Amino acid sequence: MNSNFTTLNASDFEQAITDNQVIIVDVRTAEEYSGGHIHNAINIDVKRAGFLYEADEKLPKDKTIAVYCQGGVRSRKAASLLTDNGYTVINLSGGISEWMAAGKETEQ
Question: What gap in Å lies between CA 59 and CA 81, rounded to an integer?
Fold first, then answer.
């Protein structure tokens, strides 16, 4: 796996996802996602078999993919997989935990 993706803190990630060329992907489980997620995020669980297949079905390679998870570990894995598969990726450092600690909004 490579690390050709950018990891941003919550404030920089929030700024990056205002661009309409960025697609936000929550790589946690469906249960975690339903408990609260970043506005406009789609859910593709990185731990499920077929993660890359589902990503290829849902995500265009001409847009930047912004990934996050709970604490940052799964999203780094997802970012590496996606980058290796030809995507441009940004990763939220510290996951949604850092996002919420920074007072950023989530939705159910």
Answer: 13
Please state, for a pLDDT cut of 90, what percent of the chain lies above it. 96
DSSP designation for 22: E
Domains contained in the chain, CATH given: 6-101 (3.40.250.10)
| Nearest residue to 8 via CA among 91, 104, 99 | 91
Q: Which of 69, 79, 81, 89 is catalytic?
A: 69
Q: Structure pTM? A: 0.96
The answer to whether residue 69 is catalytic is yes
